[in-house]
Amino acid sequence: MPVNNPFRPPQRNNSLAYVLLFALILTIAYYIFNPQTLGGATKATEIPISQMEEMYQQKKLVSIEVKTDRLNATGIDKKDYTSVRPEGETLKDMGLNDPTNPTEIKAISSETATFWLNMISGWLPVILFVALIIFMAKQLGKGANSAFSFGKSQARVFDHNGKKKTTFADVAGMDESKEELKEVVDFLKNPKKYTKIGAKIPRGVMLVGAPGTGKTLLARAVAGEANVPFFNISGSEFVEMFVGVGASRVRDLFQKAKRNAPCIVFIDEIDAVGRQRGFGMGGGHDEREQTLNQILTEMDGFENETNVIVMAATNRPDILDAALTRPGRFDRRVIIDMPNLVEREEILKVHARNKPMDSTVDLKKVAQQTPGFSGADLENLLNEAAISAAKANHSTVKQADLEHSIEKVGLGPERKSRRLTDEEKKITAYHEVGHALVGHLLPGCDPIHKVSIIPRGMALGVTWSLPEEDVHLKSVSKFKDEICSLLGGYISEKTFFNDVTTGASSDLARATEIARRMVTEYGMSPELGLVTFSERGNSFMGADFGASKNFSEAVAGKIDEAITKLIHEAEERTTQLITNNKELMDKIATELLKKEVLNDEEFAAFFEKTKTTAKKKATKEKME
Ligand code: ADP
Ligand code: MG
Ligand code: ZN
Prior knowledge:
Signal recognition particle alu RNA binding heterodimer, srp9/1; Helicase, Ruva Protein, domain 3; 4 domains; six-stranded mixed beta sheet; five-stranded mixed beta sheet; 15 strands; binds magnesium ion; binds zinc ion
């Protein structure tokens, strides 16, 4: 099926311009050739009316033109004569009504003539001016972002004539999501198969996933697979300065889509317009509501034969309006997870295709070291690696470039310029070794991957641990050990320097947060038992904004007590561990100060009984 491009410039009617030009010329001609406007510049000879009457009677005139205030005559001598017509006198009064006289009397119906003359000369400039403005406005309107094209949707279309299209092959992993979307592709390709049997074609598919997980990519791949046009618009593009613009853009978008069916309309970041209605905070909600209502109306308005599938993407499914997800609208939900180990490797392979890789490069190892990275992060990682290879004038990307980029993408670039004083360095070293030692000794903590005192981003040092397996369920003892290792830095500073620094504040915040969750969300506190105490606010501005407690002040006090108890317990255990291993810590810290970075093997070598660090997977833990 040929796809007509709805974005070719509209065939603008130029006749308006020609009419205007013609009118302009007429006006100018009128002023030039009108003898009255030229005053006495005529060639006619001014004669008194009595002489005109006399010439008439003597039949010396060929014709007389009778106007309101003037008589213009042409004589048989081919000369023009003109005279003033006495006010109020008729032809008869002037004796010009002799039927036997051959002189032609041209009486111009003076009333209408003057009326039209006044009309034209008075109004024409105004009409011309208005027309000119309209014309200019239309000209300007051709520019995409002009003030006159607000109501037009700015959807970009990708149709696949000849251009390289995105297909499922470009999307690594996500087998389950792809499987679900293959159905959508089939709807678009063979709609008859479904309508024949009375099945309704789904209208809307909502892609849900964290940023950078490939939602946009996947939507484009569906269009590519089905070989249909793909209208891409971002939710934020509906929201404009003027109320009503969003709704009219929606109308325009769906009109275009219907003209190009079968096709896919993709509304990216739909949460920008699809938030729950009814919260007036932040202003501008009227506009959003109108836009949202319009989307709903358009989706309801599809006839069953209309083969347009609306896809939308969001990373905040929790804040979407319930009306959006009810049957007949975005009722299909495709969840897109963060890539797992295998998928990460595949994504890396996809993006390594066009980059020459050194033969020693092990993408699997890179995938192992990048738990928690999204597809976009991985793409970025390879790009950074290529840049650093190019900087060093290498012809291929080496493993070292990749490892370097992992840290850069994951933690922010090293800040070599941020110089620590020797004292600061020493405190940082003991702080990090505190984390690492506790993390290594407690069974609930993940193996240490790396300890570093090179400042990075906001952090002065980093202890990096990686879980051995994908962890989906965490137990009480695991949480408790985690709190201990977070407190390790603080307690190490306190033990060795008898003082604490500000460097520990974010550790403490994280430890407290874990304890709070244990008590309020997971029911892990024996004092409060199996009740959750949510503090969910309305999610208009994030979950915590305007949060309201669903529990009493007395319970709030108990929660605080339970949290404090958990932290205290952990503090005691950690202090015990650190004081028992003071010499060992001195040794490790000295080594760390010398090398600045200790990797997993170097670190584990300090302990006789080494934990296995072979398998490292899933969520990365980072402690400052
Ligand atoms: P989202 O829309 O979910 O925020 P995008 O679709 O824009 O994410 O993905 C950003 C980039 O990340 C894509 O352009 C793509 O290059 C890369 N990417 C993400 N997931 C994958 C994947 N599964 N396979 C290949 N590339 C991916
Ligand atoms: Mg996107
Ligand atoms: Zn720390």
